[in-house]
Amino acid sequence: MGGGTFVDGVRRWFKRRVNSTTSTTNNKSRSNANNRNEVVKSFQEKEEEGLRIVEDFDFSGLKFIRVPERVYFLVSDSPSSMNPHKRNVQETEFFTEYGEASRYQVGEVIGKGSYGVVGSAVDTHTGENVAIKKISDVFEHVSDATRILREIELLRLLRHPDIVEIKHIMLPPSHREFRAIYVVFELMESDLHQVIKANDDLTPEHYQFFLTMLLLIGIVPLSYVDLFFSKYTPAIDIWSIGCIFAEMLTGKPLFPGKNVVHQLDLMTDLLGTPPPEAISRIRNEKARRYLSSMRKKQPVPFKQKFPNADPLALCLLERLLAFDPKDRPTADEALGHPYFHGLSNVDREPSTQPISKLEFEFERTKLTKDDARELIYREILEYHPQMLQEYLCGGDQTSGFMYPSGVDRFKRQFAHLEEHNGKSERSTLLQRQHASLPRERVPAPKDEATVQNNDFERRTPASVATTLSSSPGPDGSVHSNGNEQNGLNKANYSARSLLKSASISASKCISVQAKRNTDEESITEYNEEVDRLPQKITNLHV
Ligand SMILES: Nc1ncnc2c1ncn2[C@@H]1O[C@H](COP(=O)(O)OP(=O)(O)OP(=O)(O)O)[C@@H](O)[C@H]1O
Questions:
Q1: How many CB atoms within 10 Å of residue 500?
Q2: Which of 112, 172, 232, 447 is the most exposed place for a label (fewest CB within 10 A)?
Q3: One Pfam family this chain carries (predicted)?
Q4: Distance CA 112, CA 116 (A)
């Protein structure tokens, strides 16, 4: 999970705010309502193609802000459906006799991230608007597969009111051969980037409020003695929050790198070259070498880079963007920073259920591609309960049965969308023009070959940021270091045993979470659970 999840969280929050503002309008005073209507009206006058400013919202006395809402087109009303030829192609590709693809009526490409393309769709079973993220070539690089696994698992487990919900993950046609996955999310009408763009007059109180929201999402209780998450839990994506906060202050992405090397250059331009101890903790050898050989740069004072910002905001920002993750505060610590003093009514209680450490056993070891495939398949089965049961009973291990699936059909649909809609003017308009985390994979320039290897070079800075933020260094060193520090036995884990233990812990956690009140209870349960695991695994295999 990287910046994406937090941005998704903010999307989720905006959607919620917009809905609740709409539903409580009647309770507002008449003058407030009149005022509001005028503001909304003037916003609507500023309607742009593909982006409509539909709603303002206020919170506890702060000035109204504009919340832009994207305008989505479905197949039936998209401009391309006016072309009879295209329409024909789409219809044959969209409808299928069996499988889950027939459930979704796919609209258009609405965005691109470093892991894939996102299309809008309607879930014909529920009538809901959804966003379907197609993640291609999941297993090309095992580090990407691991990040994807971490992200989808966290999104399932976090269940936070401000975090976008995964509604479904489509079943791949084959357990062992799939390469792409299709993740169905609730469709968000807006995101923080759009809000920042639409409001050039945000006040310091708005910044304070947004940052509080982001940090509150970061407070996720982790049950048990926490051996490997510690303050570096991927759920507490402090670096990303720092980048988003900086973007709020300036209205521009902080490190808009075109590739990993460029990203490291931009980071060091601002933060200076990290000290040798910090570099030595970086796991990725190429990044380590690149940073070590870099000419020495002095940090730029934040007040020079952000001349109009509140000095306390900058003091906090500097901590959030500490190069070395061990110098970054936890979300909780950050919320205690003097920058937030005077902010009333902030409920700092975590609003998610505790997450079991056993769910993330895979973080302890270096996965192979097969392990990653197995674990991702297992995660997908969380959305297919009956098959999960069969899987846990070993039902699909020998048959080689190809489950009926809409994924193949979806591949073709997305290919079509990418080809036709993805390049259309409208889709371009819908995509972000700027981003803290660049959207596309960018081939690295040849002269930077010395610092590139497979994982290092393949993904854009979005992944670097993900790695930076969910781990302590630009290369994701935390898990490795944490493991080494804790003397964990990496070699003896097989994906199978990880899967089984995770599934046992998942069901166990569901039943115990409600009554889990104290750390002591959690530790006892954890110990008991671990004691029982070998027997449970044996039982599952017979
Ligand atoms: N649930 C959603 N509802 C509406 N739009 C979405 C949704 N999810 C993604 N998008 C759009 O698709 C774009 C790409 O999303 P994606 O999650 O792939 O990447 P990201 O979170 O922006 O960044 P990263 O590549 O770092 O994960 C987003 O910027 C947004 O415009």
A1: 20
A2: 447
A3: Pkinase
A4: 6
